[in-house]
Amino acid sequence: MEELLIVTTGGTIDKTYFDDKSDFQVGDPQIGRMLSELDVAFRFRVIPILRKDSLHLDDDDRELVRATIAAQPTRHVLVTHGTDTMVETARVLATLADRTIVLTGALSPARFRGSDAEFNIGTAVGAVQSLPPGTYIAMNGRVWDPARVRKNVEANRFEAID
């Protein structure tokens, strides 16, 4: 892998808590800071294109993600994304057959102690380097085919579709 392209769309992984508003807002992308602090042994470039909760992403946003990736020469792509509509975006990105694209996110903000963000990012980084071209989702310690996975909202995890 010459370089890892990272495209950020927002989602829980980048959320921060605002005491004065008593709610969460999507903040700056966290992945570049995290990878720099970990002193990873590969080059990466972060393109932040959206700062939205995935429930607010629409078809135009998904096309923007697809077009942004398509316009880059990089063949290894990691997308940080909210978990609620990650599968829908992955299915759109599956049209980019000449690249290995892995989407990941977090069920709690990266800034929080005990967040699954670093683990999911680590899984995604390993997956994007070792899998053949295609589009995948890396969540909960597994790598999923977007056509065969769903988010179980009640259990707050991803699971296979039979």
From TrEMBL:
SUPFAM superfamilies referenced in this protein's UniProt entry, alphabetically: Glutaminase/Asparaginase
Question: What is the protein's given name?
Answer: Asparaginase
Q: Where does substrate bind?
A: S54, T83, D84
Show where the L-asparaginase N-terminal domain sits.
4-160
Name a Pfam family for this protein.
Asparaginase
Give the highest taxon in the source lineage: Bacteria
Catalytic site positions: T12 (o-isoaspartyl threonine intermediate)
State the species of origin. Luteimonas wenzhouensis
Q: Which GO terms describe its molecular function?
A: asparaginase activity
Gene3D superfamilies recorded: L-asparaginase, N-terminal domain (3.40.50.1170)
